[in-house]
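Risk mitigation, structural track. In case the binding assays with nicotinamide-adenine-dinucleotide fail to produce interpretable data, a predicted complex structure has been prepared as a fallback.
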Amino acid sequence: MESAEPTTEAESATEAESAVDTARAQLERAAAHLDVDDGIINRLRHPSGVYEVSIPLKRDDGTTEILTGYRSQHNDVRGPYKGGIRYHPEVSKDECVALSMWMTWKCAVMDIPFGGAKGGVVVDPKDLSEDEEERLTRRLSQELRPVIGPMKDIPAPDMGTNPQMMAWFMDAYSMQEGETHPGIVTGKPPAVGGSHGREEAPGRSVGIIAEKAIDHYGWDITDTTVAVQGFGSVGAYAARYLDDQGASVVAVSDVDGAIYDPDGLDTNDVEDHDARPGMVSGYDAPEKLTNAELLELDVDVLIPGAIGNVLTGDNANNVQADMIVEGANGPTTSQADTIFERRDIPVIPDFLANAGGVTVSYFEWLQNTNRRAWSLERVHEELEAEMLRAWEAVKAEHEARDVTWRDAAYIVALHRVAESHEARGLWP
Ligand code: NAD
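Fallback model:
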């Protein structure tokens, strides 16, 4: 039995680090493996720009409230900035900067010709009526208009925002420009240029990458047990994909708890949380567990696919899975990462595994730019091809340098971004 106590300095370090500090530390860790000019690394430590806007929102009661919005544009050396817009009470400039840095690496590891951005409005979406959502989104589109564009910076939905809001955003932008610009945002409804297959893409990519990793370690997928935390957009599609490939998905969960069947659940029979809240934890399964217990199940593959920071210094020593594939963004703290590295538990990083979302966003933008829609089959085929290409590139670094999967993915991404900077040079 492993000790539950942290055993190295890194493992016992404080976890209270700002998001930007974490993002910079990850950049420097990757830079240490590559011969990249310090000037380029210095540029990448900072966003190219962060825009702060005040958004006057007329409330339904006739009063006017001033909300704060941000758009952080980290890097566009490889193509237009790309990243979501979230509506959340805890949105901050610092968080947008860090998330925009991660978008740069996510697009680069996928070799998508986009850079990284992220934006948000400090607002609780639960406090907004539908009319207020529409007025806020249209006004935000107008306030950001000087810094965004289909060839400049392309937003997408994120926490608290959805396809309908993207349609309003696109409509407001198009009205001001005097012509229809479907490529100004991705994640739109298909009726206005949204792509088939966008909804299931991040979960599907988690499944595809997990399948490759299972194969890499020489396991037979039909003998592989899987536990998935979260049964929403990411978790449900990842679980169903792996179930369809023959894996035994023994546990899934929603915010209220987990269900467990050692013989494997029929994941297509479990309704996802979005479809009907409570249907996961309320499902008739042999055993009910807590979310904390799910994370410590003795399974081959653990997929944290709900929220961030669930694998920490407190529980990493109790995790019994032989491999972790990150479905959610940032489910593993740095402290937990260090523990998993010492315990030889591979962690396949979020920005590779769940990159199917931004990849199909790129497909959506291509379809908008070319004014030609793709079939669902084509989206699935091209997504699989892109995921396999990215997997092979990361695997090559993992094997050649004997580094963790996370470091290998950062090395691939940083190498591509740095190479573009070197080729373009610094102007003037
Ligand atoms: P979602 O809202 O569709 O589903 C979230 C699931 O997690 C639900 O089943 C919910 O009940 C459960 N959950 C919520 N709080 C929980 C908690 N405290 N403990 C356990 N379970 C909890 O969200 P999603 O779109 O599937 O996103 C999940 C994660 O994946 C997030 O980290 C998100 O940032 C990341 N992600 C999403 C996308 C995307 O396009 N949807 C893309 C990449 C990454």
